[in-house]
Amino acid sequence: MAAHDMFLAMILVNAKREEAQGVVLTVENSKSRIDILLLDGSSRPLTPPQPEVLVKIIDLLEDGQRAFSSSVFAVEIEAVKIQRGPSSVQASISDWSIEHN
Asked: What predicted TM-score, i.e. pTM, was given to this entire model?
């Protein structure tokens, strides 16, 4: 189980607990950011990992990987949109399911 698998699984578990409608992972100019999109239209930032970790997660999502797991949870991502710019990359996850391992 890779560190990026565990990290993304835990982010999505926390977002589901907050009844979030989505999660946005962003790396821009070598700075990482994670935002949970709440049902009331607001967002809440989470402490992000190093940019390299988020880039790895986004690359895996772009390559079609949709299953991530931690020692406790397994997450299946059902809807994600990837956007790349000259100095940024972003993954918007809008639908996922969680199972306990």
From this structure: 0.92
